[in-house]
Amino acid sequence: MQVLNWFFRPKDEGDARSRAKDRMRLMLIHDRLELPPDRLSSLEEELIAVVSRYFEIDRQTTRFDLQQYERKAALIANFPLLRSKS
Amino acid sequence: MSGRVIVITSGKGGVGKTTASANIGTALAQSGASVALVDMDIGLRNLDILMGLENRVVYNLVDVIEEKCKLRQALVKDKRLPNLCLLPAAQTRDKSAVNPEQMQKLCAELKTMFDFIVLDSPAGIEGGFQSAIAGAEEAVVITTPEMSAVRDADRVIGLLEAKKDAISQYRLVINRIRPNMVKTNDMMSVDDVLEILSVRLLGVVPEDEDIIVSTNRGEPIAGTDNTRAGQAYRNIAGRLRGEDVPFLDLTPKDPTWINKIVKIFTPAARV
Amino acid sequence: MSKIAIISQPEQGVLIDVGGCATLQEATQHLTCTLQVSSHFWEEQPVDLNLGALSLTRDELGQVLATLSEVGVKPRQVFARSAGTKAALRAFNIVPAAGEPTTEAAVQAATAGDEPCESTATSTAGNESGQSPPASKSGKKQASKPAAKAEAPATTSGDAAVSVTIAEAAIDSAPPTTDQADNDEAENDEEAPLTFEPGDDAEESVTVSEAEAPVAPKEPAKPAAPYIMYLRQTLRSGQSISHKGHLVIIGDVNAGAEVVAEGDITIWGALRGIAHAGVAGDTDAEIRALRFDPIQLRIAHAIARSPDRPKNDKRSNGPETARVVNGTIRISVSMPD
Fold it and tell me: How far, in Å, CA of B199 to CA of B190, rounded?
């Protein structure tokens, strides 16, 4: 099960300010969506399952990301497609 | 005349709503407008203390709502500024004593009497807060650059957004910022907070020990000339009045050579 | 919020009113909390019990009576409006009292003798429907009889319960000179006649009135209620006590607390809150405290407030008394004669 790490960030500054900012971004998106984290993982799994009906996908590099646009959130899913399934 | 009703709110307690209300009110009055400050923290009143008017309170907001006195009787005139009045909260009641409909009616009456009505909301998002925003048309959300305050401010902003038919605009004041800590990346910056909250900025107030002194004296700092926090509140009042006031330069000054030497010899105090 | 009322009246004894409770459980809960008093208090007092519209079965009524008898209370009369409760009462050989319990405390003419009495009573906030006769709604008529309205409760956690009894009477809503807008500021901060600093002579004058104190409509006779409430407790911010008589408090009155009495107020401790004596109009009422540091003092119609400046160090820290002299409040260091 490729539950990707929601909290992975390429930045490696450990200073308090960046940590606070990163934690806040995610925390607020979750607060505003009012969706518990386990529901998000279920959503991710279901999306993988649906796409996998049509394409073989590289699950190692499949990525999900929650991004904030002003005060709204967007779920960005990136499925590297290997080949189609007929 | 139709005054502007502005609610000062935050979600989190202790971030400086009451201080902001007292100072914004004072600064607006200093510029010539007539201002009514209303303390909505029923049962835990504090605005009277900050204004130095605690011993002049005879009637309060609940007395007015319950028609035990006329509105004019409950308004306490400020000691220094004749065009500034305070409507104190009741201390021996609780927040169930006032409901949103009553506040709407009261605000409608105050609008005919004053240019600005500044409502000091209690902390939280329950009944007291709901009553405070009921009569308001604009909101100022106060936060500090700390995670818990920002999270609570976000919640409040969400609630204000939902009332967009009544509250036409809301803006943010970031309070108690310490430029030195921002510089060493120990505290979130103004831009960080704005990026996270995505809301318009009304002003930034630096941490200032003189605030404590001003509370103890009962003289809001906006009335004092040579303090940074006082200037920041005056700028906020100017922006509320529509003026285009540039933000204070809060970049930390490098310590003078004497301070540097003192720092070497003083053990670092972690308070 | 407490929903039972214990109303003590000089001539009529004590009325325990649980009519504000919605269920028996509430009633017994409130009863047990608030009847934590020294039992000898109840022995002296004739006690009536008002069950209001509460509908109690025989067993439930038994519980209530048992709770009361644990603290030594045997009701003299029991009022009940519900037929079911009345039947239950009869099962206990108690005849339901006829009529309504009197709750209106009229102002009494002077009677002889002060009887110090350790009393504790609690009363409800706001919602005492059915207790105040509607004719005495607040403030509309000058000559109306004062109604008994309950004040906000002084709640305590547990030990010697404290109390608030009958509140001050209706407030006259429009004393002519209180409009702040056209009030001439008689005192300026600079001159500040409002100081509490004692002069070389024992008396200093303290004035006031930017507004008049809220006071009951004036009665022609002096309300000399002989009943003294004696409390051993510190009042905290948000608590308020009012009493139709003289009030003695062993303890402090903290800033944010209020004590209101028709008679004198004597505080064996520090007064840091608001004290209002002679609330029914008696200008001879006095306020005394071991340490005077109030936010406001009020006697009848007069108000005095503490000075705006920080206090002078040479202020006396000893016991002081405030009384009205020629319309203004004066504080003197001497003990009352």
Answer: 12
Per-position pLDDT tens, chain A of length 86 = 334 444 444 445 578 999 999 898 888 888 888 777 788 889 999 999 999 999 999 989 999 888 777 788 888 899 999 998 87
Q: Which residues pair with C9 in a beta bridge?
A: C13
- Angle separating helix axes B147-161 and B127-134, nearest 10 degrees: 50
CA distance C157 to C170: 29
> Residue C193 to residues B67, C202, C300, C328: CA-CA distances in angstroms?
32, 16, 20, 11
Cβ burial, residue C157 (10 Å; 0-12/13-18/19+): exposed
Q: Is the alpha carbon torsion for B25, B26, B31, B34 positive or negative? A: positive
> A25 and B196: CB-CB below 8 Å?
yes
* Closest among C260, C252, C249 to C167, alpha carbons compared: C260
Q: Which residues contact C273 (CB under 8 A, 6 or more apart)?
A: C235, C237, C253, C254, C255, C256, C257, C258, C259, C294, C295
For residues C259 and C275, is the Cβ–Cβ distance under 8 A? yes
CA dihedral C314, C318, C324, C330 (to 10 degrees): -10
Q: Which of C276, C272, C278 is nearest to C297 (CA)?
A: C276
The Cβ of residue A54 has, within 10 Å, a number of other Cβ atoms equal to 12
Contact A21 B188 (CB under 8 A): yes
Render C108-170 in DSSP notation, one character per residue. Answer: PPP-S--EEEE-------S--TTTS-GGG-TTS-TTPPPP--BPPP---SSSS-----B---P
Those chains having 3 or more beta-carbon pairs within 8 angstroms of chain B are A, C
pLDDT tens digits along B187-227: 999 999 999 999 999 999 999 999 999 999 999 999 988 89
**Candidates B55, B56, B68; nearest CB to C138:** B68
Task: Give the residue carrying structure tokens 């005495």.
Answer: C136
Contact C258 B92 (CB under 8 A): yes
Chains that touch A (3 or more CB pairs under 8 A): B
Which residues make beta-bridge pairs with B204?
A: B174
Dihedral pair phi/psi, residue C68, rounded to 5°: -65, -40
Query: Which tokens go with C87?
Result: 């039947």
- A21, A23, A28 member nearest B154 (Cβ): A28
Q: Give the C-alpha separation, C178 to C29, whole Å.
A: 44
ipTM reported for the complex, 2 dp? 0.72
From edge to edge, which strands make up the β-sheet containing C296-299?
A: C240-243, C258-261, C274-277, C296-299, C302-305
